[in-house]
Amino acid sequence: MASPTGPTRTPAKLHQGADAEGGVGDSPLRPDGTLKVTGEFAYSSDMWHEDMLWGCTLRSPYAHAEIVSIDTSEALEQAGVYAVLTYDDLPAEVKKYGLEIRDTPALAHGRVRHHGEPVALVAADHPETARRAAARIKVEYKELPVVHDEASALAEDAPLLHPGRDDHHAPHVPHPNIVHRQPIVRGDVASAAERADVIVTGEYEVGMQDQAFLGPESGLAVPAEDGGVDLYIATQWLHSDLRQIAPVLGLPEEKVRMTLSGVGGAFGGREDLSMQIHACLLALRTGKPVKIVYNRFESFFGHVHRHPAKLWYEHGATRDGKLTHMKCRIVLDGGAYASASPAVVGNASSHAAGPYEIDNVEIEALALYTNNPPCGAMRGFGAVQACFAYEAQMDKLAAELGMDPVEFRQRNAMSQGSVMPTGQTVDAPAPVAELLRRVKSMPLPMEKQWENVGGRADVRALPGGLSNTTHGEGVVRGVGYAVGIKNVCFSEGFDDYSTARVRLEVVGGEPVAVVHTAMAEVGQGGITVHSQIARTELGVTRVTILPADTQVGSAGSTSASRQTYMTGGAVKHVCELVREQVLRRGREKFGTYHPAWATAELLLEGGKVVTDGGEVLASLVDVLGDEPVEAEDEWRHRPTVPFDLETGQGFGHVQYSFAAHRAVVEVDTELGLVKVIELACAQDVGKAMNPQAVVGQIQGGTTQGLGLAVMEEILVDPKAKVRNPSFTDYLIPTILDTPTIPVDVLELADEHAPYGLRGAGEAPTLSSTPAVMAAIRAATGKALPRVPVRPEHIVEA
Amino acid sequence: MRVTFTVNGRRHEADDVWEGESLLYVLRERMGLPGSKNACEQGECGSCTVRLDGEPVCACLVAAGQAEGREVVTVEGLADYARQRDGGERDGEAAGDAALAPVQQAFIDAGAVQCGFCTPGLLVAADELIERNPQPTDADIREALSGNLCRCTGYEKIMDAVRLAAARADQSTQEVG
């Protein structure tokens, strides 16, 4: 328990003892599982401090407006209000932040560029007092014309979202309202098109999806005596936050001490800052701890979303079913600020051809600046939008050729040694055809499964469910397939590393491994994997996981499916350093007692130093004595290079991951209602570090793909205002909307990766959406070029 | 205003409660019981599900004053609640790990916990389901938990967990009976 004057419910060390055995490849229980089921786990919104204040954010009601004046006097007069801050109160020269391009104002200055942009902050002794005071801040706006799509963004008289850009993409973009543009050109499309027997084209659209993590943006900032601040926060990358926060506060990084509190999901939505700077500003101004917790309404404005996209595709194939060429253009709406748009463009373009061998490609992807909500990272990161389009194209081509859609895909599937449109050779297993074979060979769910309960229709198993809209009349089944490709780790030359610190010590007569990293555990189970790696590498049972904080080096982001690879890799690497030290000490202490110390390959197993022949040389307890062994190091994956700005060529990605889905749907063709009956997935994970957790990742990712297919979309009106910022109007799949998800896990090792593993989190989100859409098309015969699909799209003539 | 009600068998009191405060806010911010979660605060996600005089409710939609004089059970009290309910027949080894309710243990064992933010509400709802319907079908489980959103798991392992908890309860009843 913390002292009465300090914050309570701070993140705790997680200990696992003998009851939680399990090394790499096992499925031990989560170290935080008990805390999470008893309600004791300290999420960022649970933080509490004796004399804390509540922060509240006043946001713009307009998508694009000039701020004529701000009058905070009435708000300040409210009893219980301690501070009201606007742009003029920002303490440092630096007023903006951003992941890559520092273009996002900490508080709006002179102009708001999207609906919900933060304009002012209030700190008060009660959240309702803060909200009411915020409502009394008088802001005079003068509305400006909105930029809301490609035409309005690139029009001759288009208002520029960021005039005078000086970021490193500015010199090469064709228009200042384009954040970044990446062409990829390979082969000779024109002559390949002449060889094509069939050519299909399509125009596709993907709506704006929200991460909809359940734990709202929240945290507690506590001012410190040294003029700095302690911040308890939910994020995906502590050190990236720190790099953006400290300059705006005018503090050196060492005076902003961050600790990861419990994170209620992320899915990309916590890569950007939300309330971090705001809580710190209020805490530093008032000298009191300040807690900010968004409600769901505000959360929809508090983080970036998945880029909505328009995609134009052309594919050609020969009569015998071989792809000749592909052309595409992908326009992503990045919204008002850059966020992760440049990297999303790189991903959308480099994955635009999908997991297929196509020698001749012309690809163009770009992200726009508009007055729509800012868009950035979400699970799948640019590859999701492309996969929806290219998989629809594959079905069109198969239909045109009269071929089975799975067989057509298999005929063109890439494999190890295939070359990407970027010229990069895929130098690890790429079992695309095999994954398709596996999902196809799973048994199909029974026909008319709704009749299987007591012989009469169970409406719960039918489209429309308990709304009782059909007992089977008009219901048609469809089956669809899709497969996708997603990169793993940060790409395009980024110096991507992770840091781990591991100590081996004797506690209570037993060796214990203590693992300290800054990795954001957001639910994925990274901490479980760390304890497994420590057990495997150090031969111990007991592992303690320290809370993630900025007292240890960066672990990089919990995104890009990279943490098991990267921080897992770092923990493995540092455990190896610890093991070397232990063996060195063992040789010093006991080397003279047994020749094997000098001659044999030595391992740590079962708390002992053993030879590779199994002979015990010493116990870890004896080797360690009272002196712990500790090591810390950074660990990197193999380097990548940026894509060439004109040709898109380059070894841009570290690793590729693949998943395939088969969707079985039933559609009430009269009402346009869809029930997904089953969504089977096969995925190659290289090595299932924790089989239970990896299946959980695949099922969770699959369900988010299902949501994009049939229900999830942030609706933006013609004035770029968000229409549905609530769980009443933005729907995510419930347990009734979600089918059974059988998973077939393939483990083909990638020799470049620790344990041969392959990042697993994102790939299942890609192919889920197009598989569901293919199934709905199969049931209805409709083209359905847009997700999410709505009943009116299905029933319209 | 002052509100007084029973939470997890103990009388709790809070002073200076603003009339607009929800039961969820008072539990989390005034009574030191943050286990019930605040994922939407609009009655859509179920993360704040508690029992109010035995009925599962969204604590965010209940005004704190409405709880006056009533009995609330939150995730923090679920283990005790389950133990008292099952006490007569489940003492000794059959009661398993005394610190956790069977449904809590099943969620851990089945891998139904990822980020865990939906977990407290799901546990209260699932425990109530099994209390009311000890051998639920899959359709029963889905219907009973349809008010609880989860964004991480795809619900498959939550289904596994509820099936597991029901199967274990059934087995221990048979052993005792």
Automatic annotation (TrEMBL), chain B:
CDD domains: fer2. The keyword Nucleotidyltransferase does not apply. Pfam families: Fer2, Fer2_2. Coiled coil: none annotated. GO terms for molecular function: 2 iron, 2 sulfur cluster binding; metal ion binding; oxidoreductase activity. InterPro entries: 2Fe-2S-bd (IPR002888), 2Fe-2S-bd_dom_sf (IPR036884), 2Fe-2S_ferredoxin-like_sf (IPR036010), 2Fe-2S_ferredoxin-type (IPR001041), 2Fe2S_fd_BS (IPR006058), Beta-grasp_dom_sf (IPR012675), Diverse_Oxidoreductases (IPR051452). The keyword Transmembrane does not apply. Keywords: 2Fe-2S, Iron, Iron-sulfur, Metal-binding, Oxidoreductase. This is (2Fe-2S)-binding protein. It comes from Streptomyces albus.
